[in-house]
Amino acid sequence: MPWKTIKRDCKQSSGKKGSHVVVKKKKDGGTEQESCHTSEEKAKSAIRARHANEGRTVKFTRRSLRKLVREALGTGPSGIKNHPAYREVHFTRDGEVRYINDIADEATIAAVADLGEDPIPMGADVAVVMGANPGSKTVWMNSAEVLDLIEREGWHVPPPPAGSKPGFWDGKGKWLEDSDPLLSELPPLPPVSERRTFRVTKKQLRRIIREAIAMDSNRAYELIAMLEENGYSLFAVPASDKNQRAMDNTLAVYPGEFTREDLQQAIQIVQGRGV
Length: 275
Prior knowledge:
Low-confidence stretches: 182-186, 189-198
Helix content: 25-40%
Radius of gyration: 25 Å
Mean pLDDT: 77
Strand order of the largest sheet: 4-5-6-7
Number of domains: 2
Number of helices: 9
Shape: elongated
Structural class: alpha+beta
Order of helices and strands: EEEHHEEHEEHEEHHHHH
Strand content: 15-25%
């Protein structure tokens, strides 16, 4: 058996103290800690989960893996709104203005019809603005084509001109400072609500994405051990009454420590379907 339990003090990824660890035996005879648990039974449950998933591998082409990551990050026609280039001016490696202006949701399709504009091409769901105003053009593409274009052209936000004040790049490809008279003429913004959009840097967005989807395998096995302690079975259908009751009981036994979505993600990771 490549794994075994050892009784020793440890700390889980959540910060909670544990008393037993699961270690993996290495070829040189040593061991490497893989997870921390609050009891010997939970550690043994984690080992059973590892054995249930041992040997399951999936092969991906680079294209299919990239598509899977995009889907996981929500970069489809609606999730594209989370991309940094959505209504945020970017530049190509050659200095050309680019940004994502809209998606083909129901409201946009209806607006296009009301304005008498040409219908959105079949299969297209994202509007990309190419070039600086005046003289820019809007091109409709599907989301996969847009993401490939962004990668191919190297879209990025360059730093502001030296010595300039805080501001942003406008549709003309010019730096517009916050103190610009044009900005002072704008009406005051309404109170911020959860439904309103806001500006974030690429670094902030990456952190938000990591926090939203990040769960390492050790944490996943910790959660699976808690589920199994309450009757969950990895060999049964997740939506079965037994497994749903086990999930409800686990949430009740550990109130506030994790959510149902966390448990579902842990199940996907352990069964080889995680992000």
